[in-house]
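Hi support team,

I'm opening this ticket because the web form for multi-chain structure prediction keeps timing out on my end. I have pasted the exact lines I submitted so you can reproduce it. The total is 449 residues across two entries, so I didn't expect it to be a heavy job. Is there a limit I'm missing, or should I split the entries? Thanks in advance, R.K.
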Amino acid sequence: MIVSGVRATARIVAREDGRGGTALPVLEGDGPLALRRTRGSGSEARVMLVGAMSGPLGGDHFTVETDVQAGARLRVGSAAATIALPGQAKGEARYDVRLTVADGAELHWLPEQLISAGGSELCVTTHVDLGATSRLVLREEQVLGRVREEPGRLSSRLVVRVAGRTLLDQELACGPGAPGGWDGPAVLAGHRAVGQVIVVRPEFVAEPVAAQVLGEGAAVMPLAGPAVLVTAVAADALLLRRVLDEALESLGP
Amino acid sequence: MKAGRITGAASLEDFCRGRLHTAGRVAAALAAAAALGVDPVELDAAADARTPSPALRVAARKLGRQLMRAARATWPSGELDALAREFPKGAHQPVVLGLAARAAGLGAEDAAHCAAYESVSGPASATVRLLSLDPFDATAVLARLAPELDRVADQAVEAAREVVDTGVDALPAASAPLLEISAEVHAAWPVRLFAS
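Hello R.K., no limit was hit. The queue was backed up. Here is the completed structure from your submission:
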């Protein structure tokens, strides 16, 4: 029997509804990717990504595309952590996220953790294209292995562009088969949770945020553009979330 | 070191290996691409995007400026002059290194090897000074890393050739969270031991 992975795509389009709110003319997902609109707040629409099947498993290819059009405000979360698991199909799984935020629009992309279970192989890419006056808060958290489990192979790349110029390009590879030293003192030093939050706001051009250290495992770093990156490592997912929340709060609304 | 993560030759080797495959890989590809004649201004912007820590960006530009002075004195070149004019406070060091290699008549392979080696030789000599590690032990660490260093340099040249064809997005972007965080922790010390 030939086993092949699942291919699934979810798409969200958000636009101003002309009455001070945000409409979602496209909200569609298939297979394991289900989308639900939840109660928003003010002009902001909210969407929950609900995992309707387990995965991604080996060989799966998931894609999530989100287009936030001029003036719209969207917040996307997920109902639970995503767990990368080994599958019957050969090869690694892929999870691609493509986010476009137009001028004057705002996106809060705040999914729950990605857990790399033992034996899994997953490659995640997140590409964000922003306009010069777009606003973004994006969080990504990776947990290496479930409790007392060796992690799978995980590689993730985050690319953020503002007005066509690349502001941030970061790739992290860890787990068995990753280039050497990934768990050593230069990269993760045995920490099992790693995450980052990037905040892009046009007003950072005039009022840049100062760099700040939060303990030995986290830093708030102004990028070479209208953005701040918080990078953190922690012993577990709970401690990681705590430090990322603290950093986000320090940046103000 | 202050955080207790490097205590001897074994953890130094682990640290160097991690730095080689992340910051070293990126620096080697930047240097190789500059040596192949890719626009250094674009490479400098790509280096910024791959260096979230402002302390590391400042250090890379300082080192770039120092190297620029030495390179222009030794191998005068119009391309080096132009880059120095474009970045009076210094361009990212690997970009300057690649352009200096070009001015000296060297190839992308040489530039990539230099940059990859620098990514591990600095921490090794710092460990000798700060932890009184036996210099022979530190040199042995570097010798053991040599085969991996060659592979990183080869891959960097491959990536650089792709940059010539498709643009700077083809550069590797391997990152090391603790290198970035530790640079910020170190920059916040009241007394700093190293600029980079």
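A quick check on our side: Chain A has one domain: 7-250. Let us know if the file doesn't open in your viewer.
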